[in-house]
Give the backbone structure.
Amino acid sequence: MKTLLTAALATLCLVASSALASDIKLGNWNIQTLTYSGDPQTVFPDDYVRTPSDFADLRRWRDLVGADVFLLQEVTSPAAIDEVFPVADGWQHCISGQYAKDQGNDAAPICTLTGATASRPLGSSRAQYTAVAWRNQAGLKVGPVADYAALNVKSADSDGTIRDLRWGLDVTVTVGSAELRILVVHMKSGCFDDRINFRLFTVDPATTVPMKDACDTVGRQMFPLHAWIAAREASNDAWLVVGDFNRRLDAGAGRHQDEVWQALTAYSPAFDGRDRDNRQDIVIYRAPYKAPSVCWAETSNSLPATLAESDDYNMLPIEFFLFGSAARAKLDPSSQRQIAWTPSTPADRKRLSDHCPSVMPARTQ
């Protein structure tokens, strides 16, 4: 199985762009704690407050990417999404039902469609949510859109405070005869390449208590994420998991592959090569694959002055398109690329986003 997985990953670099007719483009973007213009609240006290020109530049960046469907992270409300993807300009968007729940309403995704007004959040706090935005164009359908709240395995602070984690957003995209089932994720931060306990992979987090350690929390998220993938495989769906994984999957922290990769593929070799995971193995592809991030490369320092800065400046990517065999036949992973804002200044990283969007073409036939 090890050979099969390695070969499957390696073939990503061999797919010729000309082999696929690129009918739509999928975009992935974490728009760092995005609030609406004039929002009196921020997610964190030291968040940069964007100006009208900053929002205009975010829309310029959006157009540079040129995606038809954007899978989003760190947006705080429908009104915030509308600043970059205005319904008035032909966009539509949906935000996770976690936003509705936090606003005291029924927990269901809120979709802002043509002619609607994007709602603004109430209260004195803001939080990060997953979302999807798409161009209103013929032949492109987005929906159904559903929550995947199982990723909220919760985490514990040192003082015992229990905190929520971000829900996934389960999105079906249909273009022509092609249907893609996409899970938008923003996984727990703080465990970029450290070891994760294998024993957490196969244990339902509903049967355990929240943990303080970030790597333990990521380990607990692996069970529901693998379950979603396994269900899609069982249905022979063309599926993707897209978003901010907060994990350097190319770092190879595990014995053969990164431990998150082992958890999702259910292939976890021990030192003797024996597969410790008795679940059915799943072949998963990813893009980018063993390619450095180009995000803010002009202003980043690959050799940080202090260890505390190392996670900020490490150039291995943490955002990915993950997909199975059925989806791979509809994608052009060799054309996946990150779109950096250039030329850039150090200030751009705060005023726009500390994450750069990426795009991957898909075909509809």
Notes: The chain is about 20% helix and 25% strand.
